[in-house]
Amino acid sequence: MSGVLDAHIHLWELDRVELPWFRPGLGLPETVRLADLAAAAAPLAASPTPVPGPGPGPLTGAIAVQAGASRAEALWLTGMCDPLLAGAVVQYDPADPDGWAVSLVGGPARGMRVAVPDRRADLADVAGLDAACERVAAADGVVEFLVRAEQLDGVAAVLARHPRTRFVLCHLGLGAGDPDVAWERGLRAVAALPNAWAKLSGIATAGDQDGSRLRTAVDVALDAFGIHRLLFGSDWPMSARVAPYPELVRRIGAALPPLTAEAAQGFWGGTARVLYRL
């Protein structure tokens, strides 16, 4: 194993960048730096994490996904120089569809996330989306989607319209929701497109004490995508409210079947390295 490349983390410093959604009571720190991530993940290097098949190894890199949606924050994030930061994904702003977010992809950003869980199910009200997908493809970048389960059919339609664009579904389009029949149908519609990948990120919940909910979601995702189109992402530091970093890795690993060395290397980082051109 070459170590873990975490495909989904967040960073912020509230004295430098503004996050409109941040408020006291969320259980999150006001400053989240790469050094904090390194400290949280340090036990992975100290002792092997027990998972079926080859272990994931220590954390060797991470992809930071922009937590807010401002240009200033994107420039701050993509301007970081740290060996632990493998790449950055900036946030698409539908109010500025031809602006800064798309222009950063292919330069300091490896991809662009379309975070629109508050929009229509068919995503028809996301301005400039089709043009942005084509521009990201031309820049050899990745388009990510953060959506609710009811929007998965809309995501599948976007993927079908842009076959040369690489797409990644954050949190399996599920997050903390219930892995029900409607979600599964939508996820399979997305997975049926060959230009779709998905992150096993943001799906562990504090109430899932026996891991049955997580296993259900992972089983569906494995059957729909196959292990070679799935990526590990922690959603740290959001995930720290559910479990410490090594425990989260253990829970995700325990929800997977035993993997071959090749499949394990891909899931824990190799697939992300290829997909994001790292």
Automatic annotation (TrEMBL):
<dbReference type="Pfam" id="PF04909">
    <property type="entry name" value="Amidohydro_2"/>
</dbReference>
<feature type="domain" description="Amidohydrolase-related">
    <location>
        <begin position="6"/>
        <end position="278"/>
    </location>
</feature>
<dbReference type="InterPro" id="IPR006680">
    <property type="entry name" value="Amidohydro-rel"/>
</dbReference>
<protein>
    <submittedName>
        <fullName>Amidohydrolase family protein</fullName>
    </submittedName>
</protein>
<dbReference type="GO" id="GO:0016787">
    <property type="term" value="F:hydrolase activity"/>
</dbReference>
<dbReference type="InterPro" id="IPR032466">
    <property type="entry name" value="Metal_Hydrolase"/>
</dbReference>
<comment type="similarity">
    <text>Belongs to the metallo-dependent hydrolases superfamily.</text>
</comment>
<dbReference type="InterPro" id="IPR052350">
    <property type="entry name" value="Metallo-dep_Lactonases"/>
</dbReference>
